[in-house]
Structure formats: C-alpha cells, structure tokens
Amino acid sequence: MLSRLDQTRKAFLVFLGEAILGSVGMLFIWDAFPQLFPARAHDTLASFPLAMIALAYLVYQCARPHSRMELTRAIMLAFAFLFWAANQFLPNYRQATLFNDIAIALFVLEVFLVIIGLPAATPDKSFAETFEGKSRNRRF
Description:
140 residues
C-alpha cells in the first residue's frame, strides 16, 4: 500500500508528466502553425520539456532505492537534458554548440554504461522489477 507521501509524489510526477507531454504537443502545434506564435517561441517550446523531464527524472530517482553510482548516472542524465535544453533555448548564444556537445557526450556515456551494465540496477518495485540473479553465458 502506498503511503500518503508516495501517493503525493506519484501524483506530482503524473501531473508534471502531463504538463511535459502537453508542452511537447504545443511544440508540434508550432511545427504545424508557426505563424500563431511569437518570434523565438520555438526556442522556449523546445527547451521547456527537456528541462522539465530532467527535473521529473531527478524527483523520480530520489523516490526510489538506488546505489551511489545510479544516483550519479541519474544526475548525469538530467544534466544532459539540461544542456540540451540550454542549446535549444539559446541557439544564438556563443556557447550553444558547446552545450550541445556536452549533452551528446553525456547521452553517449549513459548509453555506453547501460550497454556494459554498470552499475547493476537496483530493481524498481513500482514497475515490479526484480533481479534475475547471475546466470551463466546469457546472451541477447
């Protein structure tokens, strides 16, 4: 049974997720009808969901058990989204390309760590995940 705090946290994440998805919808509306929006609206519409999903992911990670390495990876992934958001929000800024390159590096590092299996993930009971234990010669 979920505690009141867990229910509140889950409700907050659902609300935040709906707001983020709504902002993505606005981005697609801009794609179809850019004349309905003020100049530079796309910069904000593109950066907002990236920054908000970084926040939502950090809130989610703080609500579940994890190792120090998993928390480090979660922070790294959030920073990747934030650098990507900064690139979208400030496309004419001198460092925009650097922000983009940092985001790329962090995303690539994250996927590499997933591929090599570092660290072994802590199961997320909210998704009914369990450890399978060590098996011999498992293949894809």
